[in-house]
Design brief:
Alpha-Beta Plaits; 5-stranded antiparallel beta sheet; 4 domains; globular; 15 helices; 440 residues; Uridine Diphospho-n-acetylenolpyruvylglucosamine Reductase, domain 2; Uridine Diphospho-n-acetylenolpyruvylglucosamine Reductase, domain 3; binds (2R)-2-hydroxypentanedioic acid; alpha+beta; binds zinc ion
Protein backbone atom coordinates (compact mmCIF):
# COMPACT_ATOMS: atom_id res chain seq x y z
CA UNK A 1 0.00 0.00 0.00
CA UNK A 2 1.29 3.47 -0.90
CA UNK A 3 0.47 6.33 1.50
CA UNK A 4 3.62 8.34 1.31
CA UNK A 5 2.67 11.61 -0.38
CA UNK A 6 5.47 11.64 -2.89
CA UNK A 7 5.00 8.04 -4.04
CA UNK A 8 1.22 8.42 -4.10
CA UNK A 9 1.41 11.34 -6.52
CA UNK A 10 1.59 9.35 -9.76
CA UNK A 11 -1.64 7.50 -8.89
CA UNK A 12 -3.61 10.75 -8.70
CA UNK A 13 -3.19 11.92 -12.30
CA UNK A 14 -3.66 10.56 -15.84
CA UNK A 15 -3.24 11.82 -19.41
CA UNK A 16 -6.51 13.79 -19.46
CA UNK A 17 -4.96 17.04 -18.30
CA UNK A 18 -7.69 17.31 -15.66
CA UNK A 19 -5.07 17.62 -12.93
CA UNK A 20 -4.66 15.89 -9.61
CA UNK A 21 -7.37 14.21 -7.56
CA UNK A 22 -6.48 13.41 -3.94
CA UNK A 23 -6.92 9.92 -2.45
CA UNK A 24 -6.11 8.22 0.87
CA UNK A 25 -3.84 5.58 -0.56
CA UNK A 26 -3.01 3.37 -3.54
CA UNK A 27 -3.03 -0.41 -3.25
CA UNK A 28 -0.84 -2.26 -5.76
CA UNK A 29 -2.57 -5.63 -5.91
CA UNK A 30 -0.44 -8.60 -6.90
CA UNK A 31 -3.17 -11.22 -7.10
CA UNK A 32 -6.91 -11.74 -7.43
CA UNK A 33 -7.03 -12.56 -3.70
CA UNK A 34 -5.69 -9.08 -2.91
CA UNK A 35 -8.24 -7.43 -5.20
CA UNK A 36 -10.98 -9.42 -3.42
CA UNK A 37 -9.70 -8.31 -0.03
CA UNK A 38 -9.58 -4.63 -0.97
CA UNK A 39 -13.07 -4.67 -2.48
CA UNK A 40 -14.50 -6.59 0.52
CA UNK A 41 -13.00 -4.24 3.11
CA UNK A 42 -13.86 -1.14 1.11
CA UNK A 43 -17.49 -2.25 0.86
CA UNK A 44 -17.63 -2.97 4.61
CA UNK A 45 -16.24 0.46 5.44
CA UNK A 46 -18.02 2.26 2.59
CA UNK A 47 -14.80 3.59 1.04
CA UNK A 48 -14.74 4.50 -2.68
CA UNK A 49 -12.32 2.51 -4.85
CA UNK A 50 -10.97 3.67 -8.21
CA UNK A 51 -9.33 0.95 -10.33
CA UNK A 52 -6.32 1.89 -12.40
CA UNK A 53 -4.10 0.44 -15.11
CA UNK A 54 -1.13 2.47 -16.37
CA UNK A 55 -2.89 5.83 -16.16
CA UNK A 56 -2.64 6.56 -19.89
CA UNK A 57 -6.38 7.28 -20.18
CA UNK A 58 -7.43 10.55 -21.80
CA UNK A 59 -10.72 11.33 -20.03
CA UNK A 60 -10.08 10.90 -16.30
CA UNK A 61 -11.54 7.37 -16.04
CA UNK A 62 -8.93 6.32 -13.47
CA UNK A 63 -8.89 9.54 -11.43
CA UNK A 64 -10.16 9.08 -7.86
CA UNK A 65 -13.00 11.58 -8.23
CA UNK A 66 -14.37 10.80 -4.74
CA UNK A 67 -11.06 10.06 -3.02
CA UNK A 68 -10.65 6.80 -1.09
CA UNK A 69 -8.49 4.02 -2.48
CA UNK A 70 -6.78 3.78 -5.86
CA UNK A 71 -6.58 0.08 -6.75
CA UNK A 72 -3.78 -0.47 -9.25
CA UNK A 73 -3.37 -3.74 -11.13
CA UNK A 74 -0.01 -2.72 -12.65
CA UNK A 75 1.79 -5.49 -10.72
CA UNK A 76 -0.41 -8.26 -12.11
CA UNK A 77 1.80 -8.81 -15.13
CA UNK A 78 1.63 -12.52 -15.83
CA UNK A 79 0.99 -13.84 -19.34
CA UNK A 80 -0.60 -17.08 -18.18
CA UNK A 81 -0.72 -18.74 -21.60
CA UNK A 82 -0.63 -18.19 -25.34
CA UNK A 83 -2.34 -21.15 -27.00
CA UNK A 84 -1.45 -21.42 -30.68
CA UNK A 85 -4.10 -24.12 -31.36
CA UNK A 86 -7.04 -22.39 -29.72
CA UNK A 87 -5.81 -18.91 -30.79
CA UNK A 88 -6.39 -17.74 -27.25
CA UNK A 89 -4.29 -15.94 -24.65
CA UNK A 90 -4.94 -15.69 -20.93
CA UNK A 91 -3.34 -12.74 -19.17
CA UNK A 92 -3.40 -10.71 -15.99
CA UNK A 93 -4.62 -7.12 -16.34
CA UNK A 94 -1.29 -5.39 -15.68
CA UNK A 95 0.45 -6.78 -18.76
CA UNK A 96 1.63 -3.90 -20.95
CA UNK A 97 0.02 -4.07 -24.40
CA UNK A 98 3.33 -3.71 -26.28
CA UNK A 99 4.92 -6.57 -24.30
CA UNK A 100 1.88 -8.74 -24.95
CA UNK A 101 1.81 -7.94 -28.68
CA UNK A 102 5.52 -8.88 -28.91
CA UNK A 103 4.98 -12.19 -27.07
CA UNK A 104 2.02 -13.00 -29.32
CA UNK A 105 4.06 -12.17 -32.41
CA UNK A 106 6.93 -14.37 -31.21
CA UNK A 107 4.39 -17.21 -31.18
CA UNK A 108 3.53 -16.42 -34.83
CA UNK A 109 0.18 -14.82 -33.94
CA UNK A 110 -1.39 -11.37 -33.93
CA UNK A 111 -3.33 -9.20 -31.44
CA UNK A 112 -4.68 -6.23 -33.42
CA UNK A 113 -5.77 -3.48 -30.94
CA UNK A 114 -3.05 -0.79 -31.00
CA UNK A 115 -3.79 2.46 -29.13
CA UNK A 116 -0.97 4.98 -29.56
CA UNK A 117 0.11 4.46 -25.94
CA UNK A 118 0.84 0.78 -26.59
CA UNK A 119 4.34 0.97 -25.11
CA UNK A 120 2.93 1.79 -21.68
CA UNK A 121 -0.84 1.14 -21.49
CA UNK A 122 -2.04 -2.10 -19.89
CA UNK A 123 -4.48 -4.70 -21.18
CA UNK A 124 -6.68 -4.18 -18.10
CA UNK A 125 -6.97 -0.49 -18.96
CA UNK A 126 -7.64 -1.32 -22.62
CA UNK A 127 -10.51 -3.57 -21.56
CA UNK A 128 -11.92 -1.01 -19.12
CA UNK A 129 -11.94 1.67 -21.83
CA UNK A 130 -12.60 -0.59 -24.82
CA UNK A 131 -9.51 0.93 -26.42
CA UNK A 132 -9.27 1.34 -30.19
CA UNK A 133 -6.32 2.38 -32.34
CA UNK A 134 -5.46 2.66 -36.05
CA UNK A 135 -5.99 -1.02 -36.84
CA UNK A 136 -9.60 -0.87 -35.61
CA UNK A 137 -10.53 0.06 -39.19
CA UNK A 138 -10.07 -3.53 -40.34
CA UNK A 139 -9.91 -5.47 -37.10
CA UNK A 140 -12.26 -3.72 -34.68
CA UNK A 141 -11.67 -2.55 -31.13
CA UNK A 142 -10.69 -4.33 -27.91
CA UNK A 143 -14.21 -5.65 -27.24
CA UNK A 144 -13.95 -7.91 -30.29
CA UNK A 145 -10.96 -9.66 -28.73
CA UNK A 146 -12.24 -10.22 -25.20
CA UNK A 147 -13.70 -13.72 -25.05
CA UNK A 148 -13.93 -14.00 -21.29
CA UNK A 149 -13.21 -12.19 -18.06
CA UNK A 150 -12.63 -13.00 -14.47
CA UNK A 151 -13.41 -9.96 -12.39
CA UNK A 152 -14.20 -8.94 -8.84
CA UNK A 153 -17.23 -6.91 -7.86
CA UNK A 154 -17.40 -4.35 -5.08
CA UNK A 155 -17.77 -6.44 -1.90
CA UNK A 156 -15.33 -9.08 -3.16
CA UNK A 157 -17.51 -11.44 -5.17
CA UNK A 158 -15.66 -13.09 -8.07
CA UNK A 159 -17.55 -13.07 -11.36
CA UNK A 160 -16.50 -15.27 -14.30
CA UNK A 161 -18.15 -14.51 -17.61
CA UNK A 162 -17.61 -15.34 -21.23
CA UNK A 163 -15.74 -18.32 -22.54
CA UNK A 164 -12.62 -19.63 -24.25
CA UNK A 165 -14.37 -20.64 -27.46
CA UNK A 166 -14.74 -18.46 -30.55
CA UNK A 167 -18.55 -18.61 -30.33
CA UNK A 168 -21.08 -18.86 -27.53
CA UNK A 169 -24.62 -17.62 -26.89
CA UNK A 170 -25.46 -18.72 -23.37
CA UNK A 171 -27.19 -15.93 -21.48
CA UNK A 172 -26.68 -12.19 -21.81
CA UNK A 173 -23.34 -10.91 -23.05
CA UNK A 174 -22.07 -9.76 -19.67
CA UNK A 175 -18.49 -9.81 -20.95
CA UNK A 176 -19.36 -7.23 -23.60
CA UNK A 177 -21.04 -5.07 -20.95
CA UNK A 178 -17.95 -5.16 -18.73
CA UNK A 179 -15.67 -4.14 -21.60
CA UNK A 180 -15.78 -0.35 -21.83
CA UNK A 181 -17.57 0.07 -18.49
CA UNK A 182 -14.63 2.29 -17.43
CA UNK A 183 -14.02 0.38 -14.22
CA UNK A 184 -17.46 1.14 -12.82
CA UNK A 185 -18.86 -2.43 -12.77
CA UNK A 186 -16.01 -4.65 -11.57
CA UNK A 187 -12.22 -4.98 -11.53
CA UNK A 188 -10.88 -7.44 -14.10
CA UNK A 189 -8.29 -9.85 -12.71
CA UNK A 190 -7.85 -12.21 -15.67
CA UNK A 191 -8.58 -11.71 -19.37
CA UNK A 192 -9.14 -14.40 -21.99
CA UNK A 193 -8.27 -12.83 -25.34
CA UNK A 194 -8.79 -13.88 -28.91
CA UNK A 195 -5.77 -14.00 -31.21
CA UNK A 196 -5.45 -14.12 -34.99
CA UNK A 197 -2.87 -15.64 -37.31
CA UNK A 198 -0.16 -13.12 -38.09
CA UNK A 199 -0.72 -11.46 -41.51
CA UNK A 200 2.11 -12.59 -43.79
CA UNK A 201 2.90 -9.17 -45.25
CA UNK A 202 2.32 -5.49 -44.53
CA UNK A 203 2.67 -2.41 -46.76
CA UNK A 204 2.34 1.23 -45.85
CA UNK A 205 1.83 4.36 -47.91
CA UNK A 206 1.67 8.04 -47.14
CA UNK A 207 -0.45 10.30 -49.33
CA UNK A 208 0.00 14.06 -49.23
CA UNK A 209 -2.94 16.43 -49.79
CA UNK A 210 -3.50 20.16 -50.05
CA UNK A 211 -6.19 20.01 -47.36
CA UNK A 212 -7.81 17.52 -44.98
CA UNK A 213 -11.14 17.59 -46.80
CA UNK A 214 -9.54 16.09 -49.91
CA UNK A 215 -7.91 13.48 -47.65
CA UNK A 216 -11.33 12.72 -46.17
CA UNK A 217 -12.72 12.24 -49.67
CA UNK A 218 -9.88 9.84 -50.47
CA UNK A 219 -11.04 7.65 -47.59
CA UNK A 220 -14.50 7.28 -49.13
CA UNK A 221 -13.01 6.60 -52.56
CA UNK A 222 -10.67 3.94 -51.23
CA UNK A 223 -13.60 2.17 -49.59
CA UNK A 224 -15.67 2.39 -52.79
CA UNK A 225 -12.81 0.78 -54.70
CA UNK A 226 -13.10 -2.18 -52.36
CA UNK A 227 -9.75 -1.56 -50.67
CA UNK A 228 -9.63 -2.83 -47.13
CA UNK A 229 -6.63 -1.22 -45.44
CA UNK A 230 -6.01 -2.13 -41.83
CA UNK A 231 -5.43 1.51 -41.00
CA UNK A 232 -6.32 4.84 -42.61
CA UNK A 233 -4.97 7.67 -40.49
CA UNK A 234 -5.31 11.39 -41.09
CA UNK A 235 -3.12 14.25 -39.88
CA UNK A 236 -4.18 17.82 -40.63
CA UNK A 237 -1.91 20.78 -41.37
CA UNK A 238 -1.76 22.02 -37.79
CA UNK A 239 -0.77 18.57 -36.52
CA UNK A 240 1.86 18.16 -39.26
CA UNK A 241 3.33 21.59 -38.49
CA UNK A 242 3.64 20.66 -34.80
CA UNK A 243 5.33 17.35 -35.62
CA UNK A 244 7.78 18.68 -38.20
CA UNK A 245 11.37 18.37 -37.01
CA UNK A 246 10.34 16.38 -33.95
CA UNK A 247 9.74 12.93 -35.39
CA UNK A 248 11.80 10.20 -37.05
CA UNK A 249 9.96 10.56 -40.38
CA UNK A 250 10.24 13.99 -42.00
CA UNK A 251 6.73 14.95 -43.03
CA UNK A 252 6.67 16.86 -46.37
CA UNK A 253 6.90 20.65 -46.26
CA UNK A 254 3.74 22.52 -47.06
CA UNK A 255 1.47 19.49 -46.69
CA UNK A 256 -2.11 20.49 -45.90
CA UNK A 257 -2.91 16.96 -44.73
CA UNK A 258 -1.52 13.45 -44.95
CA UNK A 259 -3.19 10.06 -44.99
CA UNK A 260 -1.27 7.11 -43.62
CA UNK A 261 -2.62 3.96 -45.15
CA UNK A 262 -1.54 0.45 -44.19
CA UNK A 263 -2.57 -2.84 -45.76
CA UNK A 264 -1.87 -6.41 -44.76
CA UNK A 265 -2.47 -9.84 -46.28
CA UNK A 266 -0.88 -12.22 -48.75
CA UNK A 267 2.09 -10.64 -50.55
CA UNK A 268 0.63 -11.45 -54.01
CA UNK A 269 -2.61 -9.52 -53.52
CA UNK A 270 -1.03 -6.76 -51.51
CA UNK A 271 0.69 -4.86 -54.31
CA UNK A 272 -2.58 -4.68 -56.19
CA UNK A 273 -4.49 -3.43 -53.14
CA UNK A 274 -1.77 -0.87 -52.48
CA UNK A 275 -2.10 0.44 -56.04
CA UNK A 276 -5.86 0.75 -55.59
CA UNK A 277 -5.37 2.85 -52.46
CA UNK A 278 -2.79 5.00 -54.23
CA UNK A 279 -5.24 5.52 -57.12
CA UNK A 280 -8.04 6.48 -54.72
CA UNK A 281 -5.75 9.08 -53.14
CA UNK A 282 -4.70 10.46 -56.52
CA UNK A 283 -8.29 10.62 -57.73
CA UNK A 284 -9.16 12.64 -54.61
CA UNK A 285 -6.38 15.09 -55.45
CA UNK A 286 -3.29 13.74 -53.65
CA UNK A 287 -0.20 15.82 -54.45
CA UNK A 288 2.13 12.93 -53.77
CA UNK A 289 1.93 9.27 -52.77
CA UNK A 290 4.95 7.71 -51.07
CA UNK A 291 5.30 3.99 -50.38
CA UNK A 292 7.37 2.93 -47.38
CA UNK A 293 10.51 1.30 -48.74
CA UNK A 294 11.69 -0.61 -45.70
CA UNK A 295 10.53 -1.95 -42.36
CA UNK A 296 12.48 0.87 -40.72
CA UNK A 297 10.67 3.52 -42.75
CA UNK A 298 7.34 1.92 -41.88
CA UNK A 299 8.22 2.02 -38.19
CA UNK A 300 9.32 5.66 -38.47
CA UNK A 301 6.01 6.59 -40.11
CA UNK A 302 4.05 4.98 -37.28
CA UNK A 303 6.24 6.46 -34.59
CA UNK A 304 5.61 9.84 -36.21
CA UNK A 305 1.86 9.24 -36.13
CA UNK A 306 1.96 8.09 -32.50
CA UNK A 307 3.83 11.26 -31.51
CA UNK A 308 0.81 13.42 -32.46
CA UNK A 309 -0.82 13.33 -29.03
CA UNK A 310 2.30 13.74 -26.84
CA UNK A 311 3.79 16.45 -29.12
CA UNK A 312 0.67 18.63 -29.13
CA UNK A 313 0.60 18.24 -25.37
CA UNK A 314 4.24 19.21 -24.91
CA UNK A 315 3.89 22.35 -27.02
CA UNK A 316 0.80 23.86 -25.42
CA UNK A 317 -0.22 24.73 -21.93
CA UNK A 318 -3.63 23.11 -22.40
CA UNK A 319 -4.71 20.62 -25.01
CA UNK A 320 -8.40 19.86 -24.78
CA UNK A 321 -8.67 16.54 -26.57
CA UNK A 322 -11.97 15.58 -28.14
CA UNK A 323 -12.52 12.17 -29.65
CA UNK A 324 -15.68 12.38 -31.73
CA UNK A 325 -16.75 9.85 -34.32
CA UNK A 326 -19.01 10.54 -37.30
CA UNK A 327 -20.41 8.23 -39.97
CA UNK A 328 -17.67 7.76 -42.53
CA UNK A 329 -19.51 9.62 -45.29
CA UNK A 330 -19.93 12.68 -43.05
CA UNK A 331 -16.21 13.10 -42.42
CA UNK A 332 -15.46 15.73 -45.10
CA UNK A 333 -18.40 17.79 -43.76
CA UNK A 334 -17.16 17.36 -40.17
CA UNK A 335 -13.70 18.57 -41.23
CA UNK A 336 -15.31 21.64 -42.82
CA UNK A 337 -17.23 22.35 -39.64
CA UNK A 338 -14.11 22.01 -37.50
CA UNK A 339 -12.45 24.75 -39.58
CA UNK A 340 -15.51 26.97 -39.28
CA UNK A 341 -15.74 26.44 -35.51
CA UNK A 342 -12.02 27.18 -35.00
CA UNK A 343 -12.34 30.40 -37.03
CA UNK A 344 -15.54 31.54 -35.32
CA UNK A 345 -14.18 30.93 -31.80
CA UNK A 346 -10.70 32.17 -32.72
CA UNK A 347 -8.95 29.16 -31.20
CA UNK A 348 -6.29 26.99 -32.85
CA UNK A 349 -7.42 23.42 -33.44
CA UNK A 350 -5.27 20.47 -34.54
CA UNK A 351 -7.08 17.39 -35.85
CA UNK A 352 -5.77 13.93 -36.47
CA UNK A 353 -7.09 10.43 -36.07
CA UNK A 354 -8.62 7.30 -37.39
CA UNK A 355 -10.14 8.62 -40.60
CA UNK A 356 -11.17 5.16 -41.79
CA UNK A 357 -13.52 4.97 -38.80
CA UNK A 358 -14.64 8.60 -38.95
CA UNK A 359 -12.99 8.92 -35.51
CA UNK A 360 -11.29 12.32 -35.22
CA UNK A 361 -9.11 13.52 -32.36
CA UNK A 362 -9.87 17.23 -32.37
CA UNK A 363 -7.55 19.18 -30.11
CA UNK A 364 -8.32 22.69 -28.97
CA UNK A 365 -4.96 24.27 -28.14
CA UNK A 366 -4.66 26.92 -25.46
CA UNK A 367 -1.55 28.75 -24.30
CA UNK A 368 -3.15 31.13 -21.79
CA UNK A 369 -2.99 30.04 -18.18
CA UNK A 370 -6.78 30.13 -17.86
CA UNK A 371 -8.76 28.29 -20.52
CA UNK A 372 -10.87 31.06 -22.11
CA UNK A 373 -14.65 30.74 -22.38
CA UNK A 374 -14.43 30.75 -26.19
CA UNK A 375 -12.46 27.47 -26.08
CA UNK A 376 -15.26 25.79 -24.14
CA UNK A 377 -17.74 27.34 -26.58
CA UNK A 378 -15.81 25.75 -29.46
CA UNK A 379 -16.04 22.34 -27.76
CA UNK A 380 -19.79 22.70 -27.30
CA UNK A 381 -20.07 23.61 -31.00
CA UNK A 382 -17.96 20.58 -31.99
CA UNK A 383 -20.22 18.30 -29.98
CA UNK A 384 -23.32 19.82 -31.55
CA UNK A 385 -21.89 19.41 -35.05
CA UNK A 386 -21.03 15.78 -34.32
CA UNK A 387 -24.57 14.98 -33.20
CA UNK A 388 -26.08 16.86 -36.15
CA UNK A 389 -24.04 14.63 -38.44
CA UNK A 390 -25.39 11.58 -36.59
CA UNK A 391 -22.09 10.87 -34.89
CA UNK A 392 -21.15 10.06 -31.34
CA UNK A 393 -19.28 12.12 -28.75
CA UNK A 394 -16.54 9.63 -27.89
CA UNK A 395 -15.03 7.12 -30.28
CA UNK A 396 -12.42 5.43 -28.13
CA UNK A 397 -11.22 7.52 -25.17
CA UNK A 398 -14.25 6.89 -22.96
CA UNK A 399 -16.37 9.42 -21.09
CA UNK A 400 -14.64 9.39 -17.70
CA UNK A 401 -15.01 12.78 -16.09
CA UNK A 402 -14.24 14.84 -19.13
CA UNK A 403 -17.22 14.21 -21.39
CA UNK A 404 -19.86 13.58 -18.74
CA UNK A 405 -21.59 16.86 -19.45
CA UNK A 406 -22.28 15.79 -23.03
CA UNK A 407 -23.68 12.30 -22.41
CA UNK A 408 -27.28 13.59 -22.01
CA UNK A 409 -26.84 15.49 -25.30
CA UNK A 410 -26.45 12.15 -27.05
CA UNK A 411 -28.55 9.73 -25.01
CA UNK A 412 -32.21 10.07 -24.08
CA UNK A 413 -33.51 9.70 -20.48
CA UNK A 414 -34.77 6.08 -20.84
CA UNK A 415 -31.33 4.95 -21.99
CA UNK A 416 -29.60 6.89 -19.23
CA UNK A 417 -31.97 5.39 -16.66
CA UNK A 418 -31.38 1.81 -17.72
CA UNK A 419 -27.61 2.34 -17.55
CA UNK A 420 -27.86 3.76 -14.02
CA UNK A 421 -29.92 0.70 -13.06
CA UNK A 422 -27.27 -1.56 -14.55
CA UNK A 423 -24.62 0.18 -12.48
CA UNK A 424 -26.69 -0.47 -9.34
CA UNK A 425 -26.87 -4.19 -10.16
CA UNK A 426 -23.08 -4.41 -10.09
CA UNK A 427 -22.39 -1.86 -7.37
CA UNK A 428 -25.52 -0.92 -5.37
CA UNK A 429 -23.75 1.60 -3.11
CA UNK A 430 -21.92 3.40 -5.91
CA UNK A 431 -18.48 2.84 -4.44
CA UNK A 432 -16.58 1.50 -7.46
CA UNK A 433 -15.16 4.35 -9.53
CA UNK A 434 -17.97 6.69 -8.46
CA UNK A 435 -18.73 9.99 -10.16
CA UNK A 436 -17.98 8.84 -13.71
CA UNK A 437 -19.72 8.64 -17.10
CA UNK A 438 -23.17 9.94 -16.08
CA UNK A 439 -23.64 13.38 -14.56
CA UNK A 440 -25.50 13.27 -11.24
C1 LIG B 1 -4.22 8.41 -30.72
O1 LIG B 1 -4.91 8.06 -31.67
C2 LIG B 1 -4.68 8.00 -29.37
O2 LIG B 1 -3.14 9.01 -30.86
C3 LIG B 1 -4.06 8.78 -28.26
O3 LIG B 1 -6.05 7.90 -29.29
C4 LIG B 1 -4.36 8.16 -26.93
O4 LIG B 1 -3.24 6.06 -27.30
C5 LIG B 1 -3.70 6.85 -26.51
O5 LIG B 1 -3.68 6.62 -25.28
ZN1 LIG C 1 -6.81 7.40 -31.19
Amino acid sequence: MVRDEERLERFLVDESGLGRFPAECAVLAESRAEVELVLRLAQEHRVPVTPRGAGTGMTGGCLPAKGGIVLSTERMTKIVEIDTDDLVAVVEPGVVLGDFAAAVEAAGLFYPPDPASLASCTLGGNVAENAGGPRAFKYGVTREYVLGLESVRMGGEVLRCGRRTQKGVVGYDVTAALVGSEGTFAVATELTLKLLPKPPAVQTLLAVFADPIAAGQAVTRAIHLGARPRALELLDRATIDHLRGRTPYRLPDGAGAVLLCELDGDPEGLDHALMRCAQACEAAGAIDVLIAQSEQQRRDLWETRRRANPTLKELHRHKIAEDVVVPRGAMPEMLRRIDAIAAAADVPIATYGHAGDGNLHINVLVDEEQIPERAYGAIDALMRATLELRGSLAGEHGVGLMKMKYVPWEQAPPLLRIQRELKRVFDPDDLLNPGKIFPS
